[in-house]
Amino acid sequence: MLRRDVLKALAALAAVPSASLASGNGLRTGDPKPFNAQTVLNRARKLATSEFTPRPTVPQAWQELSYDEYRSIWFDPRNAYWADTDLSQHIDVFPPGLYFPRAVEINVVADGSARPLQFDLDVFTRTDKFPDLPLNEHMGYSGLRLRADLRDNGHFTEYAVFQGASYFRGIGTGETYGLSARGLALKTADPTGEEFPDFIAFWVEEPKKIGGSVTLHALMDSPSCTGAFRFEITDGPVLNMEVEATIFARTELSHVGIAPLTSMFLFDSTDRTRFSDWRPNVHDSDGLMIHNGAGEEIWRPLANPKTLQVSAFGDLNPKGFGLMQRKRDFEDYNDLEALYHNRPSVWITPRGDWGEGAVTLVEIPADLEIYDNIVTYWRPSTPIEAGTSHSMRYRLQWGADPSPNSETLARVIKTAIGGRPEGGLVIVIDFENSESIPEDLSDLDVFLKASAGRATPPIVQRNPVTNGPRLAFTFHADGAKLAEFRVQLRAANAPASEVWLYRWTV
Question: Residue 272 carries which DSSP code?
């Protein structure tokens, strides 16, 4: 699945402005069925006892739509569910076709009953570029979008989208969509090929009239497992999603990714040699941040390697991890269209003990920014056996800086790498200033370790622009093809900065 193509299609549909005229016919619902907190869980459990059967598809002509044709049909927000009420949320739907050959079941829940949204072509606006297409009994919507009055001005603005496999995205108020989350990752970067579970049905509970959150349930299905998900979603400057999920394994899940995130990293100042580009940085995220169970705060700058790289950061009961976008100034990207400076970071906070495992980072070579080439997730050390279930709880936060940053430790704000005329690579790390950094930088102790090659003694100077310390050293590979670096500033025998980790490859 080309995720960037999907995101482009969604962005095109999201760009359609809300109309101010009276509502049209609106989304219609079918007959009600009982619904309670166990409905999705019971359905997932029962589904796991039978063999996986792919859902039927919409007509082939819908699947063969061109990108431009798919852009020529979009949902009319006047037809949103709850648009004609005083409730705090609106639901939009997306058309099937192109990258979405199978419809998903979408239900709205109120007073203990769930009513399915029935497919209606008239809820969409179409241009003359959209062809006349046949319909069949398997027609339906490909996903949903949530909107709320985020700025308290009467205008309902989108903040979350669930569409495509088990992918979903969110933004804090005023942000631009960037990285994605998934319900589950299976066999990512595995030689046998990755498996993409699908959310095949959604239930959205009726929200309160003013403010509050919206509760969304999702049923997942895949050849290897099924799953029941519950999202408690609260919009705002930082979008909060409390997630509860139970996975039912059809087969042994030996390579499973919990709370996976997917992003794009093309280049930054660590390596510009492969790209002739007028922009200084191109990425949705620039680093993986980890608060591990031992209390360390780790910053791992992302890379776009020439060969597939998989890194595993072993841990016991992690406190949190996420993909961050730390560069926040327009000048960092100089891009008027992509607005990379406005892309959200996502922070994951485990609920309860997750046990032994590893925060896993997959970095995939990419030559264009249309490809999502970064994946991170928690991989439990113990496989989920066939016929058993696995429950998990965590919080997802989408925003400019949703991570619980230390009040004392200096964060890494930039990493730059470049060649020296006399040989070797200069590696420069800028840290922000903080109360942990002594006024006299000579009082700092520097921990620097390289797994291969030679690293010169580091030099620490104060950066007059940031007022924080800049650490620089030269690395000589001496024939090594790969080297792992670990750097930390310390003062008075205590950490003064995050731990900076980096993997260098030829």
Answer: -
pLDDT digits (tens, 9 = 90+) for 216-251: 999 999 999 999 999 999 999 999 999 999 999 999
For domain 412-505, give its CATH number from 2.60.120.430, 3.40.605.10, 2.60.40.10, 3.40.50.300.
2.60.40.10
**Cα 159 from chain centroid?**
14
Do the domains spanning 3-399 and 412-505 agree at the CATH topology level? no
What is the CATH number that goes with domain 3-399?
2.70.98.10
Q: Give the whole-angstrom CA distance, residue 97 versus residue 210.
A: 35
d(CA 65, CA 76): 20
Structure tokens at 101: 């050959």
Encode burial over 152-187: b for 16+ CB neighbours within 10 A, e otherwise. Answer: eeeebbbbbbbbbbbbbbbbbeebebbbbbbbbbbb
DSSP 156-191: -EEEEEEESTTEEEE--TT-----EEES-EESTT-T
Within 8 A by CB and 6+ apart from 9, the residues are 67, 70, 71, 98, 99
Ordered alpha helix ranges (H), 57-207: 60-63, 67-71
Domain residue limits, the chain: 3-399, 412-505
CA distance 62 to 134: 8
pLDDT grade for 25, boundaries at 50, 70 and 90: low
Mean pLDDT value across the chain: 94
- Mapped onto helix, strand or coil, the DSSP state of residue 90 is strand
Average pLDDT for 332-354: 97
- pTM, to two decimals: 0.93
Sign of CA dihedral 147, 325, 4, 58: negative
Percent of the chain whose predicted confidence (pLDDT) is above 90: 91
CA–CA dist 71, 88 (Å, integer): 28
Identify which of 436, 398, 420 has the alpha carbon closest to the alpha carbon of residue 474. 420
Sequence-ordered list of residues with C-beta below 8 angstroms from that of 249, at least 6 positions apart, any chain? 48, 224, 225, 384, 385, 386, 387, 388, 389, 390
Q: How far apart are CA 449 and CA 445, in angstroms?
A: 13
